[in-house]
Amino acid sequence: MKSTIETFLFNPTIGKIVAIFVGIGIIWVAIKSVQRNLLGKIKDTDNRYRAKKFSSFIGFILTIILVSIVYSDKLGGLTVAFGVAGAGIAFALQEVIASFAGWLAIMFGGFYKTGDRVQLGGIKGDVMDIGVLRTTIMEIGQWVDGDLYNGRIVLVANSFVFKEPVYNYSGDFPFLWDEIKIPVQYGSDYDKAKEILLTAGAEVTDDLPNKTKEMWAFLQDKYRLENAQTEPMVSLVANDNWVEFSLRYVVDYKKRRVTKTELFTKILKLVDATQGSVKFASATFHLVEAPEFNVKIKSKFE
Q1: Boundary of a domain, candidates 62, 77, 92
Q2: Residue 289 per-residue DSSP state
């Protein structure tokens, strides 16, 4: 009985398994301790999230290295086999490898971060989490009008960053230019109509033009961009049926729908206050009756 216990305790295989479990425990206790005591003190949410993700990645790498060291004496004769198997695995898991490379590009290339509103592979929404293989997105749009959540959570492979364009609505410039179009009847007071749109745009967007002007100046210093007007502006086009006024303005990327509602409400009230000097236009369809046809059929006996 004693020899059996001694054989079990001093068995090299058992010793290696115990060493692996103990080593893995030490590695992950240390990783969690660093995440809790050091990384948890990082004030910036984005930097703290990246640091925790990277530390977890380091933990996985250390675990692989530990297993390789413990079983290093068994790996010598399997080099060729592992080489062939590795080539087959790399071919079979090429999408996984591409997704992992995409994760590295996302984390260190500045494609997007958690909280950003993006469009990936036709999916538009806010980034909830950036995993090693997939990005988790809370989707917006689809059957819901406007930039509102529809409740569907979508997982997108990170490899998409190499295959398709990445649209970031909230990167270095977290604002968008938006427009609303107002049809005005011919004969209206055009100057008054323009004044109404500019007044509504200035009151609703408030101090956004000043904020966006500063951020746009920063982008001009960072990239080669021309100067852009961030204050509300109005343009018009004379169509067949009416004069179409367009109000262009900047808006927070998360407040497009709310801002558009406020603008339309303000414009409607200001137009009503003109007592008819400015009138909205609408399409008019005139139905014409078909002409009357008289058909006379002659018989061959006539």
Answers
A1: 77
A2: P
